[in-house]
Write a structure and sequence with these properties.
Elements lengths: L6 E6 L4 H12 L2 E7 L3 H14 L4 E4 L5 H14 L5 E4 L14 H26 L6 E6 L12 H21 L3 E8 L13 H5 L10 H13 L7 E4 L7
Parallel strand pairs: 1-2, 1-4, 2-3, 4-5, 5-6, 6-7
The structure holds NADP nicotinamide-adenine-dinucleotide phosphate.
């Protein structure tokens, strides 16, 4: 068991483009970060090196969040090492589009099992720890403004993110007042530009604030939620006004 009195965060998806910035910023806030990766071992180990400069007791492990056995094993390892859980940051996500008539069962399962099922069972494990500690805890899920948009060729992805937003409200109501549960719905963040279909300028024209999101825009919202103890069950769109279009 790690002895220090620092706050502890369990984070999925920390090897992601935005996820790695989030993990570093949480470590920078004084948290020990226990984070998971799925396919990107090298990125995860590189991130662990950086995080340990800020937070020496941080750890990482592989976990496929679409498999409940993997989630259970990651939490077993977590419990062996840490006496409490202050923050769950559920960021693991799969993202791709397929024309609606061509969506296969495998594609549906890959998106919905990673994004929605994975977030549900990760939250379920986290609240088992948090509800047995006097200090309660916080959960932040990562959704997407696409949850409220009608992207014809992204049905499984957008449905999974809409599901995450609804799970956020259900968990918030069920576990109040001890556990505060909120979701951040980013618009397009600059580091993900290569995955956007079509030229960037076309997209920027649809954003009232005239630019893509910066990872810092998301990080600042997370820090705001960490500071605030009177917000729960909310989805915060961080999108430069994109949903106003
Ligand atoms: N970046 C954006 O513009 C943007 C926009 C809207 C919403 N978001 C949301 O913000 C969050 C962070 O985004 P990001 O840019 O970091 O995403 P990303 O670069 O696509 O990274 C996805 C992360 O999820 C992990 N992952 C994928 N499949 C997994 C599985 N089956 N089990 C466990 N982990 C799995 C990946 O791990 P490995 O790499 O190790 O496989 C990686 O850490 C995501 O929830 C995303 O949907 C991002």
């Amino acid at each position: 068991m790690k002895p220090s009195g620092r706050k502890v965060c369990f984070m999925t998806g920390a090897s992601g483009k935005l996820g790695s910035e989030i993990a570093l910023s949480i470590a920078g806030q004084g948290y020990t970060v226990f984070f998971t990766w799925h396919a990107s071992e090298e990125k995860a180990l590189d991130l662990l090196d950086k995080i340990r400069w800020l937070s020496p007791e941080s750890m990482t492990t592989r976990c496929d969040v679409s498999k409940t056995a993997d989630i259970a094993a990651a939490f077993d390892l977590f419990r062996k090492n840490f006496p409490k859980l202050d923050l769950l940051m559920a960021s693991a996500s799969n993202f791709f589009g397929t024309p609606l008539p061509d969506v296969s069962e495998e594609q549906w399962d890959s998106l919905v099992d990673t994004n929605l099922k994975g977030t549900f069972f990760t939250m379920q494990e986290a609240v088992r720890i948090m509800q047995n500690q006097d200090s309660g805890g916080k959960i932040i899920t990562m959704s997407d403004i696409a949850a409220g948009m009608v992207w014809r060729d992204f049905a499984p992805y957008t449905v999974s993110k809409a599901g995450i937003q609804h799970l956020t409200r259900i968990f918030a109501k069920k576990y109040a007042p001890g556990i505060l549960v909120n979701s951040i719905a980013p618009g397009t963040v600059s580091q993900a530009l290569e995955s956007i279909p079509g030229p960037g300028n076309e997209l920027i024209g649809k954003i009232p604030l005239g630019r893509l999101g910066d990872p810092l825009d998301i990080v600042k919202t997370i820090l705001f939620l960490l500071e605030n103890d009177y917000i729960t069950g909310q989805v915060i769109n961080v999108d430069g006004g994109r949903l106003l279009h």
